[in-house]
Request: fold
Amino acid sequence: MGLTLRQAADLCGASRSTIHRALKSGKLSGNRLDDGAWDIDPSELARVFPWDISEPVQRDNSGQGREGASEREAVLVVKVEMLEHQLERERDTIADLRKRLDRAEDRVLALTSQTLPPAPELTQTRRRWWPF
Reply:
């Protein structure tokens, strides 16, 4: 009797979806039972996903092994750094746009505060429809 998908994942420290993808792609061989469960030979699992039997892999609540957790933490650190860099760029952009807006307002105020020469008054003449 072989291992189920869950047992294989627990044994080698990979997730169930990783084992399942390996089975579907043909990287790992296993038999499908009548009830739809997988039967995976332990030696076949060790060939594709070698594991150290002297130190069992401990899982956290998300189903990832310790290696997966540290890898996930590294990815999160990189994402945080990228987001901080993006935030700094956005702040610089906002500061630049505020300066531009202030300069534009100053120009508008300078143009509107100039005294314009008085417009000539138009004499109102009555326009007739008939030239009589």
Remarks:
- The first strand starts at residue 31 and ends at 32.
